[in-house]
Amino acid sequence: MKSQNERKRTFLMIAVPILLLFFMFNTLPLLRGVMYSFTNFRGYGKFDWVGWRNYIDLFTDSRVGNSYWFTFKLALVATILINILSLIMALALNAKIRFKSFLRGMYFIPNILGALVVGYIFSYIFTYILPAITHAASMLADKNWAWVAIVIVCAWQSIAMNTLIYISGLQTVPEDVYEAASLDGATGWNKFRYITFPLIMPFFTINMVLCMKNNLMVFDQIMALTKGGPAQSTESISFLIYNNGMSGGQFGFQSANAVVFFIVIVIISVLQLRFLNKKEEQL
Amino acid sequence: MAGLSLQHIWKKYPNGYEAVKDFNLEIADKEFIIFVGPSGCGKSTTLRMIAGLEDISSGTMKIGERVVNDVESKDRDIAMVFQNYALYPHMTVYDNMAFALMLKKTPKDEIDKAVREAAKILELDKVLDRRPSQLSGGQRQRVAMGRAIVRSPQVFLMDEPLSNLDAKLRVQMRAEIAKLHDRLGATIIYVTHDQTEAMTLGTRIVVMKDGIIKQVDTPTNLYNKPDNLFVAGFIGSPQMNFIDARFDGNDLIAGGTSFEIPLEKVEVLRNGGYVGKTVVMGVRPENVYDAKAEALCRLTAPFEAKITVFELLGAEVQLYFDFAGASMSAKVGQGSRAAVGDTVSFAFDVDKIHVFDKETEQAIVH
Questions:
Q1: Nearest CA in chain A to B51
Q2: CB contact at 8 A, B255 and B324
Q3: Nearest to B77, CA basis, from B57, B90, B58, B62
Q4: Chain-chain contact of B53 with A281 (C-beta, under 8 angstroms)
Q5: How crowded is the C-beta side of B269, counted as CA atoms within 13 Å?
Q6: Cβ of B151 under 8 Å from any chain A Cβ?
Q7: What is the Cα B219 distance to its own chain's centre?
Q8: From the candidates A178, A183, A194, which should be mutated to test the interface with B, based on the most B CB atoms within 10 A?
């Protein structure tokens, strides 16, 4: 009995402080955010309750609409690009090649760099190096191309982690299954299509969901590359919430935006999981 | 179906290790060939080279009349049953069996017919919609067999397919494989380290050691006329007893006892120049008799030994004892009253004594 009480005490000693910290720095701000979404709070001074006004305005605000369009376009393109490229990379790095461990380490480096650092490096490349080579204006200054630059940076950084997850997935496929497929007459493509891909489907699911979520929340890269420009063409939802909420006097309104965005991400993630789980084979 | 020809096949790895050395074998159409030997003897490597899963370092391999050295696995028209079955875990039993035909773009109705026929033979018709994880070990093994059968390949390769099954199921599946061979009339190459499987299934057995073929022969010949000490010791359970004996020109002398041997064997030894030399006398446990019990064969002079282990195996008794510096065993009838510590008088069947050269380890006479 004594040891059970001790265990309980240890459990509480560990759990309660963490729960309190989590509540203070996560749950409480979230609840306050929800509260402010029903006010006209500007980030300072007094505020009034406005009911659902902020939420109704969200659907009529063209800037919010544009940011949703841009964010979804970027997230979708980047997610597809990242997953295709990281799967190819994983297949290459899982093959019988020389310096495999070294190459895996090298390709993982982008993931350990801060997004802002990467953003600033690419900003330099897009602003000075590329225009010098192509003799064209910077992509970042072109409102039709700036979003592509952001996709490139997002992909460059995310591929590392996704590749790692795919490599671990590929390592779960037994070698003799490939050998059996070879004897059954499978070509390289057949093996990928009928053996590899179905067997790494759980890893594809997790990569797709995490990647989509991360790209929907894109912020650092925009901060470093375009600050939402040119002409607000690369304003992501997160950036808009931060920019207009913190320095634009729209704290209440952007809180409503954040609440809606949170719900949208949850819905997308759940739908993605449901759809992809159906595709996963029950092993 | 087709025969196979393996001529001077070598497998040498980049680190210099030679897994298979100068392997020569002609396998006839519809033959059931067994590769048997201890772990690391090169039997699985040879099988994998036939499958095209390992490159051949040198030599020529033919399936039928076609040289297949540089032919990819998928184009060799062979099927293989793996030790771990290597079933596609995400496919149903039906899809596992249909996969090869589907890749060949066989019409669906033909695939269906082939799969259902194989499933019927292997009693898998009720589990066709299940996945491998939902099957028992025996069922998985049968699916692996079924996957091979539906393809009607030229050659079937089996890499220790029964080693993951429990003893009872192994016996059952062994019989199934034998029946299947009769039914399909297929050329089968079967790797095992279990000599019972080898003896019961094979039309010919290839005994290997350290990458070298030690003997290729029928099960009966391997058992009765082993070419060398290794084969004599490897085939048969418990293994053949070996005693160093001196040939005095008439008899074999060991442990102070003079063992007479048939005249024709004496002649062979005399002609071979073994008079006065030490040879290895080999006697199978079932040819060692309790000298006091009635035997239907001609026995050598008796010798006495103390029983160290007594094993009742049901229908018979296995007695272990030391004689002439060698640990020996005898398979005697259930009626034996010997007990551990008893001194028992034993004798050998005169006609069943094998003699081997001590230096070369080759058989001199059987």
A1: A183
A2: yes
A3: B62
A4: no
A5: 31
A6: yes
A7: 8
A8: A183
Mean pLDDT for B290-300 is 82
3-state secondary structure of A166: helix
Contact B344, B353 (CB under 8 A): no
ipTM of the complex: 0.83
Check whether A282 has a pLDDT greater than 60.
no
From B334's Cα to the closest Cα of chain A, the distance in A is 47
Q: Which of A176, A186, A283 sits opposite B103 (nearest CB)?
A: A186
- For residue A83, give the nearest of A160, A149, A162 by alpha carbon: A162
Strands B155-159 and B78-81: parallel
DSSP letter assigned to residue A169 = H
Q: Is the pLDDT of residue B332 over 90?
A: no
Q: What is the pLDDT of residue A91?
A: 94
Burial of A93: CB neighbours in 10 Å, binned 0-12, 13-18, 19+:
buried
CA distance A179 to B50: 13
- B227-279 confidence digits (pLDDT tens): 999 999 999 888 999 999 999 999 999 988 999 999 999 999 999 999 999 99
Token pair for A180:
């059996």
Is the Cβ–Cβ distance between B81 and B38 less than 8 Å? Answer: no
**Inter-chain CB proximity B89 and A195 less than 8 Å:** no
Which residues are within 8 A (CB) of B352 and not within 5 positions of it... i.e. 6 or more apart?
B283, B284, B287, B297
pLDDT recorded at residue B154: 87
Q: Are A198 and B90 a contacting pair at CB < 8 A?
A: yes
User: Please, which contacts does A147-152 make with residues 24 or more away whose CB atoms are closer than 8 Å?
Assistant: A147/A70, A147/A73, A147/A74, A147/A233, A147/A234, A149/A122, A149/A225, A149/A226, A150/A74, A150/A218, A150/A221, A150/A222, A150/A225, A150/A226, A150/A234, A151/A74, A151/A77, A151/A78, A151/A81, A152/A122
Report CB contact under 8 Å: B86, A282: no
B86 touches chain A (CB under 8 A): yes
pLDDT digits (tens, 9 = 90+) for A208-237: 999 999 999 999 999 999 998 888 899 999
Flag if A174 and B53 touch (Cβ within 8 Å).
Answer: no
Give residues with Cβ within 8 angstroms of B50, minimum separation 6.
B4, B6, B61, B63, B78, B155, B157, B189
Pair of tokens at residue B243: 């005693």
Q: CB distance B103–A176 less than 8 Å? A: no
Shortest CA distance from A179: residue in chain B: B53
pLDDT digits (tens, 9 = 90+) for A96-142: 888 888 888 888 888 888 889 999 999 999 999 999 998 888 889 88
Q: Which residue among A180, A187, A198 sits closest to B82, beta carbon to beta carbon?
A: A180
For an interface test with A, which of B74, B130, B155, B160 has the most A Cβ atoms less than 10 Å from its Cβ?
B74
A71-100 residue pLDDT tens:
999 999 999 999 999 999 999 999 888 888
